[in-house]
Amino acid sequence: MRELIQRTGLSSLACVAAKLEEKSQERCEALRKLANERPLSSDEEKQLKERRYFSKTALWDLVHGIRKRPPGEAQLKALYELAYGDDGTEEGWNELNGRRRALANQSTRSGSVADENHQLPTICPACGGTRPERGARAMAKPAEIRSAIASAVVPVPHQRGDRHNDKRTDLVWPPAASLIEYFAAGNLEHANGLIRHVGTQADPAETADAIGTCRDLHLSEASDTIISYAGGRPEQRASGSREAMQIAHALLGQSRVDDATALLAHAIASSESTAMS
Prior knowledge:
mainly alpha
């Protein structure tokens, strides 16, 4: 990865990420025009829908070994084409992609063992965001997700009616109910949008509540991805570092030491990335 990025000749990871985003937009525009001429193949429709590319943080994590799993084929090919341009060969790409597949297979085998020990993979399958490596439960299946939220609501005694009329059974972070529905319906686009918003734009207190609520509902992948986004705030705006500290402080107030530590680690990595670029 480091060699590919250096070969692009661009001055910073931010420039590489911006160029990849530009290429992604060009590809999507070409696919939209093509869709007016003929039906798109399933692969083309997937490319148009997902429109995935590397963020500066993702590039930093890959270069510095924080992101353990290899990138997707489409992402790596985009970076290969950016690095080699017309000098790229089919043989060179096949060799590189072969190594990516070998690493992916190795990660899959390691992930199977990790699942048995309730360890999380390093990358969120919903959005490609990095997550800190830590012990936690893997993402529950839709049926398990529904039962997790249902179990938090206890029956109401007959003498008190047939429903809850107080706030005690409400979720600390109410949008978690919508997130559960998105996951259950397979609507990853809306799920990722909600996760990204609360990680990057919400008030620090709400972000901390979101991390804790998702953790309590065993939506560990969502919690870790929110942490990744929240830790990236320093590179997004001047107040980002202060907000990251406020989120960590709120998490500590909830006795969520591991989550606070993971968030600060991401914030430090993000700050170092910004300084280098």
